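Researcher: Sequence recovery benchmark, item below. Answer with residues only.
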């Protein structure tokens, strides 16, 4: 219905036209004008139902024109004002505010009108008036391009104690994406969804791991990738001091006069095995079975190392041992036999332990 100002303007224009045509009927005109003003006053004074609804703004991602949203809109919610009969019967489910990107023709910040999609129930109310605040929304749009971006995994948690994450293999390592030019050209990688390695002791492979940060990307060639993680034991080395040396198979005719009582060894292996290792009996053994007489000998060393460990650092292959002839009893008299002079010892191998 026309406002008072509009009616007054129409009335003045009608008066001018009638004056020009010399068809002025002033009493009739004044009467019509008075009636029009009365109608406007009666309409405006009537109590009309009003209601305000807040609804989330939707973005119509129509990519046919080669442009796409590249940033958030200036507002996320639109205030919808309802006026008319039965306005109170409607709610937010009857109205969807949206902006249509098909109106976009260039990159940058665009000021687009807020459109309103009505439910069938709202459409059936012919006397219902609607309005949106704000009526226009600013949104940044950009040209759509296609590019290739690296994929990086997102790892959560830590392997079990004594284990570590050695390597990660992603397949495919790059994916084709489509989206706003400014986003793709400024983005070095996309991330996968979380891969959990908490308390893992063995390697494993997760198939169909999705891409997480797809915001503002309209298309990804491979939304799922496989992530293979290699879990290995942590290696460690431990030095053990004063490891006793055991001498076996000593000839009864001789006795040891000089020997190496203990040595230091370095063991290496999985950290859990190294930490729990304790030196067993006869860990280092010198075999004296080849000695028949007094003298100085370089005898071979045997180290009984468990299969899950290995020795590092200085490893003893031979140990220098000096033997004397044992004293004997002859007719209740003690007779000490002179030591038998041994042949000169050969040069010991690397790692020999001398006196």
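Model:
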């Amino acid at each position: 219905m026309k406002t008072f100002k509009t009616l007054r303007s129409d009335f003045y224009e009608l008066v001018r036209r009638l004056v020009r045509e010399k068809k002025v009927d002033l009493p009739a005109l004044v009467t019509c004008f008075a009636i029009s003003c009365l109608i406007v006053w009666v309409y405006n004074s009537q109590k009309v139902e009003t209601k305000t609804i807040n609804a989330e703004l939707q973005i119509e991602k129509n990519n046919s024109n080669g442009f796409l949203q590249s940033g958030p809109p200036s507002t996320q919610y639109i205030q919808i004002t309802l006026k008319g009969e039965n306005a109170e019967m409607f709610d937010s489910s009857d109205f969807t505010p949206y902006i249509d990107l098909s109106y976009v023709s260039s990159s940058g910040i665009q000021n687009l009108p807020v459109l309103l999609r009505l439910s069938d129930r709202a459409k059936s109310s012919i006397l219902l008036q609607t309005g949106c605040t704000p009526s226009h929304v600013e949104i940044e749009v950009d040209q759509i391009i296609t590019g290739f971006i690296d994929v990086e995994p997102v790892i959560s948690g830590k392997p079990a104690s004594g284990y570590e994450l050695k390597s990660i293999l992603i397949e495919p390592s790059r994916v084709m994406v489509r989206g706003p030019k400014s986003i793709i050209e400024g983005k070095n990688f996309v991330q996968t969804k979380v891969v959990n390695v908490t308390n893992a002791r063995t390697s494993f492979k997760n198939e169909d791991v999705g891409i997480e940060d797809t915001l503002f990307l309209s298309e990804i060639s491979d939304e799922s990738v496989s992530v293979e993680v290699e879990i290995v034991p942590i290696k460690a080395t431990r030095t053990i001091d004063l490891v006793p040396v055991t001498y076996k198979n000593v000839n009864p005719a001789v006795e040891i006069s000089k020997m190496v009582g203990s040595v230091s060894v370095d063991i290496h292996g999985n950290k859990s095995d190294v930490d729990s290792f304790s030196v067993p009996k006869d860990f280092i053994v010198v075999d004296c079975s080849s000695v028949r007489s007094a003298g100085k000998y370089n005898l071979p060393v045997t180290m009984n190392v468990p299969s899950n460990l290995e020795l590092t650092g200085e490893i003893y292959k031979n140990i220098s041992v000096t033997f004397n002839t044992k004293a004997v009893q002859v007719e209740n008299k003690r007779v000490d036999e002179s030591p038998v002079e041994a042949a000169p010892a050969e040069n010991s191998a690397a790692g020999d332990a001398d006196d």
